[in-house]
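Researcher: Going back to the complex we discussed earlier. I've cleaned up the inputs and rechecked each line, so this should be the final set. Can you rerun the prediction on the complete assembly and write out the structure?
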Amino acid sequence: MARNASLSGFPEWLPEERLVELHVLDTLRRIFELHGFSSIETRAVETVGQLLRKGEIDKEVYGLSRLQDEEAAGAKSDPNALALHFDLTVPFARYVVENAGYLAFPFRRYQIQKVWRGERPQEGRAREFTQADIDVVGDGELPFRYDVEIALVIAEALSALPIPDFRLRINNRKLSEGFYRGIGLTDTAGVLRSIDKLEKIGAEKVAELLKSELGATDEQANAALSLASIQTTDTSFVEKVRALGVTDDLLEEGLSELEAVVAAAVDRAPGKVIADLSIARGLDYYTGTVVETVLVGHEQLGSICSGGRYDALATKGNRKFPGVGLSIGVTRLVSRILSQEFASPSRAVPTVVLVALSDEDSWRSAQDVAAALRSRGISTEVAAKADKFGKQIKFADRRGIPFVWFTSEDGTHQIKDIRSGEQYDADPTTWMPAAEDLTPQIVVKTADAS
Amino acid sequence: MARNASLSGFPEWLPEERLVELHVLDTLRRIFELHGFSSIETRAVETVGQLLRKGEIDKEVYGLSRLQDEEAAGAKSDPNALALHFDLTVPFARYVVENAGYLAFPFRRYQIQKVWRGERPQEGRAREFTQADIDVVGDGELPFRYDVEIALVIAEALSALPIPDFRLRINNRKLSEGFYRGIGLTDTAGVLRSIDKLEKIGAEKVAELLKSELGATDEQANAALSLASIQTTDTSFVEKVRALGVTDDLLEEGLSELEAVVAAAVDRAPGKVIADLSIARGLDYYTGTVVETVLVGHEQLGSICSGGRYDALATKGNRKFPGVGLSIGVTRLVSRILSQEFASPSRAVPTVVLVALSDEDSWRSAQDVAAALRSRGISTEVAAKADKFGKQIKFADRRGIPFVWFTSEDGTHQIKDIRSGEQYDADPTTWMPAAEDLTPQIVVKTADAS
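Model: Rerun complete. Updated structure for the full complex:
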């Protein structure tokens, strides 16, 4: 990043940085569409009631009020007050319920939008940032196979980005909750909340929390921590869990679901997935598969892609719309790509050719040359002033434009590659640049990035 | 539009409607980049002080406060309080000043983002909507020729959209202000504000306003209204203004600038431009060229593209960054395209092929078929359940997927076009759909739309 944001937590990119972000966004869009996901956007604004519908959340929400509205104070407690969305899953669930009559289920969508959280900004955590989500939502039921598919699509999408190697760390809420129940800990939400702090505060303090806040015995706390310590790159976690000697129906269901996801991933995305039984996903709305993702060597950046299965987020009376989805933290990834220079554009501007002016009256014929080039997809600008040619070439050079076009009074055309200095005759109706000069290319810089 | 927004003023699109919006956005991006404009985004959030920097504005601004923050009330009067941007020009000016050291001038950028205004929603006026802006900003000076260029780029961009014919109505603030000064009306901002109401309240009431609020004589009011009544499709407006017998240096400068824009437009975008001396652009920051745009036959929709020249919006000490730009109201246009059915997609989903399952164990080989198709850019889904083939075909039909792929136990492949019923042998490594089936096509429906 060239400079700091003028408002902490609200990053902005220079044009050449934006090209890297656009490359990331275009790549994700291409892969999501290749897998049959439709694009939608939801409004950035939800009612407070909608955002807080699932009860307590650990996100800081930005409320809205019109500056000209004298009565805005106190509106926070009003569930109809407006606020900015803090993720794309809650708004998507609302959209599905509202538009159920117009959607074909299972409904597959991707959604790439900004979200806002009023949290303390720090590296990798902004107050305004872009997320790229894919979800599949069913009407009434949603086959478990979509949990597998979503993980594979995301592994393919992340593999196509100019980032270092990554690992999807996958767990299953049924597995955890069944296990806790099996050892006699019934406040499973409380246990999950404590286990979620494992990386931050360590096993010893989590054990203390379990004992002091949830009344766990030493044995129960140890068992919960033993479960959370299991990490395998294949389906061997099943045996390790069984070795802990706990039996519970929900645990069995979670084990077989997680086994199916990990088995498919080992087969189709080898090396990209870990069964990690410490993953909890805080206060969120997940009911089965849960996923977090780390960049290898950049673990302190936090999760770059999270999500899971939610069976009860979208409901309309008795009708349920269970879903599964994952969300890529685009801004977090792009910040890291830029700060570590994993990728950069071959030039800063889309422009391939600057058409020079020989005199002020040539502006009209220069426009004709430009139109002929653009008709073949060649980005072209016309000089605004008939400065000396040297000055016009300098202008192109300063803006990073690789070619300058000259038309002499007798109507002959020449083009100059200002990088090599080479100049040759060219026809505006046929000339084409090399393929790699047609648009700015994203150059991947480190062996570390894929 | 299939249904009403669940929150008035905050429109959302169904997936097939979103395809139309994406077509509009992709078209604009392609044309802006062909003309050498770089993409940037600015944060959605600005300080109140920044938004209100130019004094009085006639936009309703949404302020932000964290729901968890007890002291948020009263923050409105704080210039450091946060608010959502109401356009993309004011944030762009701030961005240019902050990043001047990193930009190559004249800096050409496009910016496609949502903006928010807390106004009373009505047809064509939403509270959250997308704008697509192009601007060129210079360091110290910006040749007038860019005013001409911006108008031509926008005419080309609008011509590429599935909308009816349009007219850019162009005026020049120097012309108006010079004329008012020439007839002795010195509160030019006040006169512009009154003239801006012409279409809403009519000539008679504007004359009353000029007299009662600005102390104009009958003669002055009549002269101002005579100027505003001039509309020509060529440069003949110059004579008509001269015939009013007013002389002023600024008026002359404005006349020659507007003449240059209109002359170039008549030449390069024939029929798309009107010199319309009633265009005022309210309380905005414009100092020269001003533009509004109407859809022919849909004038009551309001301007679909507005903007102009601003010489004093971006300043850093003594350094000035004059600019010129235009802003397309994407949401306003897309709403009209959808409600009038000017265009619709050939299908609702990106998916070309559904790979059917012959039994549950075939999921793995079905994934191989899908991967082979996707590697050639063919959007493909795999069925989630090994239902009877008839049910799997119905599934594809319901989602609008045109082809279903079958693999028999002996490994032979067949593909069925479920629209025609035709079924034939196919090889997953070579089969390609017809070009028009590869991605959803936007079908332009009326002779009225281009």
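Model: Worth noting: Chain B has a mean pLDDT of 93.
Researcher: Good, that matches what I expected from the previous run.
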